[in-house]
Protein 1
Amino acid sequence: MEEYKSKIKLFVDDEQQPIAELVPPVQFDFDTSKLTDGEHTLKLISKSPTGREGIRKIKFIVKNGPAISVEGLSDNGVVDGVIPLMINAYDKGNQKKFLIEGSETPQSILSWLWILLIAFWVGQHFISSQILVCNSIKIEMANKEIWLETLITDTPQEGRELAIKMARKSIAAIQTDAETREKLRSDYANDTAQLIASANVIAIEFQTIAAANNYWKTEK
């Protein structure tokens, strides 16, 4: 019966050899993992039993590589002097490990830090980092514990550590019950979207600290 059906050949870009030859109707799993990131064209050529051909081209964009986020520089921006950039890169295919890449050596976020940061996103919508810091400071002052006396640090590494501490304090200020935070850990430890959003909170805190330290520039 197949000799009386149309046949379809699939080509990618300008390749001469088809990636598949199918008899419709059929479901086909198109594997894009071997294609380079960027624009591509899927060309389908159908040939009927009478010899007539039909062609359809579908343009698509492959984005299998790690996503890159850059803060501090936009397309066609006008700049001058030294520009501090906050750069994050993450692979959406790896849900167990997320790297923050900045001016220092990239470091994995420890699992315990992931869980604490996720607790914030479970019960709250996104709130600006400055409001979170203010709420945290007010509660700490009420308990007569002043933990944030200054934003000034000696090195960028110390600044990053302070940014992580500020994020953790904000979470504890919003969800004050330690037992509740413990219960929430197992539910969101593997949610990549929540991990990325949590890391962005640290990045915003780090931007504030970097500005306060004049990006650790040394006077000449």
Protein 2
Amino acid sequence: MRIRSVAWLLVAVPAGAFAQVDDRELAKRNYQTGEAYYQRGEFEKALESFREAYRLVPTADLQFNIAKTCEGLGRWMEALEAYRTYLEGVPDAPDRKFVESRIAFLEKQVAASTPAVAPVSPPPSPEPAPAPAPVVAPAPETEPEPAPSVQTDTAPAPESSGGGWKRPVGWTAVVVGALAAGAGAYYGILAAQKAADLEDAEAEGGEFSETGQAIQDDGELAQKLQVLGLATGGVLLVTGIILIAIADDGGDSAATSLGNSRFVVRF
């Protein structure tokens, strides 16, 4: 619904209703300015203009326009008050039913937007203080009985023999080293035999054949195994001999005394 036009009212009001002719002209200009703002959707400025016009010329129709503008701004309470002021000023208004429907709508909006006040519950009654705990007299202190003394004699730790684990490990290394060296020697003989077979195959075949290639591959593998066996066997033999010699020597020991106990350190 459009806002109410009050141009005819501003003209029809007798001159005695205005303090001055200037107020009437200024009210008319404010009304026209507010109407222009309202049509452009600038409700805040329109409301200022309508209220200024009502301040200069307090006519009920301007309250209708103020109510419509407040609705556009979502200011439900102000719109509700303006509609009620309008009906008070114009009890037999031709659009009374419409205004009353707007008032009913705005009353629901105001009620929905007003937060409900939670009832204040009385403070809980204080709980009774707990009864004091009974005082228990402490039991008389008794001196602990002295523990019986125990005398222990610490016998000197026997010194271990000089051989220990070195002798069996040394002999194991010697045996394994000898086997590895023997395997290396075997593969050396096999490599020499493969080299001789390769020369015979080349002499008979003329050209390098597939048989000659196979013999050459076997010979190269035998040479590698020969080197590996001899090197491993040599290292194991030397290690085993050293361990056996150290075990037979018995090792040196250093004794450290502490009270009645003696700790023997061998190195």
Protein 3
Amino acid sequence: MLKNLFEYCCRKRLLFWGITLTALLFSTQSLFAQADPGFTPTQRARAKADSIAEHETFTVVETAAYFPGGSAKMREFLKENVNYPYLSYSLGEQDRVFIEFIVTAKGKITEIKILKGKYPSLNNEALRVISLMPDWMPATQDCRPVPQKNIIPISFKLPKGK
């Protein structure tokens, strides 16, 4: 009798789980069919990631955007192209200007703005130099190029004795 009761309970459980899993399978298939007929869940996830990447600017990414040639080349570029404004030089103004900009998914520099800087002439020079920069290597997220927000400090220091 105990054996028959055990078999009866096992059959009931199997029947319950079989019906539950079948219902779950049909309900998820119908949900996917309503969402995008003909697309697999992986394709839908990729499409969603693509639409997010088009409209979102990242600050943290798998691979950050970088100046062609690396940071050493960027310092060299800044050293060659930054001209100390005459007015600031003659007034003895020194500052570290923080510039924020976005490197697009194509490597272009856009939306350049000053985050911190005291003197307008030094701020304008920093903006000018950043706008002269060549295209960067874009940031990547999930092996796709994405826009990334960057911040660079540019220091304006007078030589000692001035």
Protein 4
Amino acid sequence: HREAVSLARRGLEQLPALPENAERMKLELSFQTTFASSLFLIKGYGDPEVERVFRRAQELAHQTGQSEQLVGILRGLAFFHEIRGQMSVGRGLAEQALEIARQSGDAGLLIVSLHLNGDVSLWMGDFVRSCGLLRRLSISTTRSAIARSPNASARTT
């Protein structure tokens, strides 16, 4: 992960040489998400630099319309706030991720965001909500696995 952080930093340092346009912003988003994902493994989710990098990635995802990437970015930010004991902030970010996942219709994003919301609710002591979300996660995961099965079209519902 140290090498990924080093390469992402190097890539970010080279960006000013490129023209300011949508492609450059998408490239920066790619570097920032790689940077953030590896940085938290090295420094931990609660490190202020991790938040700074995830916030920049969040800004870029909004500017470039990359809403699918927002779920992972919001997940990282929610974990940052969760580790720091800022649970209500984490819950708000988790709920944003769930809304994006629902709007996208992407089963994978829904699974990630249900898990995130169940986790945050658990740590907040909201066990009823957590169990409900994690139950929905279990159902969604099962349905997703069945849909990916090679014989899914032969099954009846």
